[in-house]
Write a structure and sequence with these properties.
This protein has 454 residues and is α+β, with helices and mostly antiparallel strands. It has 8 helices and 14 strands. It has 3 domains: 148 residues, Beta-Lactamase (2-Layer Sandwich); 92 residues; 146 residues, Histidine kinase-like ATPase, C-terminal domain (Heat Shock Protein 90, 2-Layer Sandwich). Helix 4 packs antiparallel against helix 5, helix 6 packs parallel to helix 7 and helix 7 runs antiparallel to helix 8.
Length: 454
């Protein structure tokens, strides 16, 4: 049996594809959640900075010809964080520094511009800066007030780290769930293919019926092709069986006719040399007939062994019926066929193949058994059904027993005996098809023994 070439696992490919997609989606989900969290957190901080800056600018006023800014407590309290972020501010009038932290510098100049947010660094720490302005109009003219308010981002960083961890856990959970769903989806997808494989495996060699079970649309072409192949195979096997039967008839019948005419001719020939030639021709015809018959038998057995027609058989009855049919031939050779053993031996098997194997073994025993001897046939049921056939001939060559069941292999003591070297091969094939075996040995008191077990 040739094993199929394998190029990886379809199940593994599908699982890896789904897991790869799940991992990519989990990563994108983590990145999207973190990016959205940064945006939301930054917007929250900006809104607080804007509210604080607006509160400070609202407190600005012109008194005694100068600008005064009273920073309300609430302006800074609303910026307090669990991480105690540091706050920096600077106030400018018409671009000139008035008070606050001198390290803050204006990025925009001019009048009443809208608030602007930007990132920066102060004292080695990242900060978020808002620059806002307000125009104050008094009796002495117009004043442009600019305010810079900066806050470190320790609390924001801690919040983002926590959100990132939560997002990573959420992404991991999503990946785990997706992995489980991928395995389930893969099992469900591969399931119909596995069931089809199991259905093919369970079928016997003779079961060539088309598959009728519903399959997914994608598997329909495969099942259709498989059904078509099985139909063609069934047709081919039927044609092969018919051919073997027809060939057996067409080969055996002419040879039998030629042999009968040769024997009739032998009776009319008077010269000894001519009679010897006719005898040689008859012997050649017998050899050809036997070889052709056994070749066809072997072909038939090879064909039927793949699809046995099993039935309940009484092996003891089968052997007795076979010996009754072979008894006239044994009588012509001055041999006796003696059957003994259990009266009933039940088994399940192909009757035609069993008859063929037993006939070849008994025929071999009659060929090598000496005249006036007995062919002993023993049928037993325990420990398993078996038939032992023993003759009283020269036995098997001890050094050739292991090879005698090979096709066309004959022992060196069979050189002058008609045969094709297929009898033991046929018996071995039949035993193997029934899950049994054949054993060859020489009896201690002389003669060959063949045991066919099932």
């Amino acid at each position: 049996m040739n094993n199929a070439r394998v190029s990886g696992s379809l199940r593994n490919r599908l699982v890896l594809t789904l897991l790869g997609g799940a991992a990519l989606l989990a990563l994108l989900l983590v990145l999207a959640v973190r990016s959205h969290a940064i945006q939301v957190a930054q917007e929250g901080q900006d809104n607080i900075l804007l509210a604080s800056a607006t509160s400070i600018l609202d407190s600005a006023a012109i008194r005694d010809g100068s600008v005064q800014v009273d920073i309300p407590y609430a302006a800074f309290s609303m910026l307090s964080t669990p991480a105690d972020d540091r706050l920096f501010y600077a106030v400018f009038q018409d671009g000139q520094f008035l008070s606050g932290y001198a390290g803050l510098e204006l990025a925009q100049a001019g009048g009443d511009l809208g608030p602007e947010f930007r990132a920066g660094h102060l004292q080695g720490a990242p900060v978020r800066i808002i620059e806002a302005s307000r125009t104050i109009i008094g009796t002495e003219g117009r004043r442009d007030i600019q305010l810079l308010l900066a806050q470190t981002q320790d609390a924001l960083s801690e919040t983002l780290d926590r959100i990132s961890r939560d997002a990573a856990l959420f992404g991991g959970g999503f990946f785990l769930l997706a992995a489980l769903l991928s395995l389930a989806a893969t099992k469900a997808t591969i399931g119909p293919l596995s069931r089809l494989t199991a259905s093919v495996t369970r079928r016997g060699p003779q079961d060539l019926r088309p598959f009728q079970s519903a399959v997914p649309r994608e598997m329909a072409p495969l099942v259709t092709s498989l059904n078509s192949l099985m139909g063609r195979l069934n047709q081919t096997l039927s044609q092969s069986e018919d051919f073997i039967a027809e060939a057996a008839h067409r080969v055996r019948t002419p040879l039998a006719t030629v042999r009968s005419r040769a024997e009739a001719t032998l009776q009319r020939v008077e010269k000894e040399e001519n009679r010897e030639a006719v005898r040689a021709m008859i012997k050649a015809i017998d050899e050809s007939s036997r070889a052709a018959g056994q070749l066809l038998d072997h072909a038939m057995i090879t064909f039927r062994a793949d699809h046995l027609e099993r039935n309940e058989i009484d092996l003891a009855v089968l052997v007795r019926e076979l010996t009754e049919r072979l008894a006239p031939i044994a009588d012509m050779r001055d041999l006796s066929l003696h059957v003994k053993g259990d009266p009933r031996v039940q088994m399940t098997g192909d009757q035609i193949l069993l008859q063929n194997a037993l006939r070849n073994l008994i025929d071999n025993a009659m060929k090598y058994g000496p005249a006036e001897s007995v062919i002993e046939i023993t049928v037993t049921a325990a420990p398993h059904p078996q038939v032992t056939i023993r003759d009283h001939g020269p036995g098997f060559p001890a050094d050739e027993i292991e090879t005698l069941t090979s096709r066309f292999k004959r022992g060196r003591n069979a050189a002058h005996t008609i045969g094709s070297g297929l009898g033991l091969t046929i018996a071995l094939d039949v035993a193997t098809a029934h899950g049994g075996a054949i054993a060859l040995h020489n009896h201690p008191e002389g003669g060959a023994c063949v045991t066919l077990s099932f």
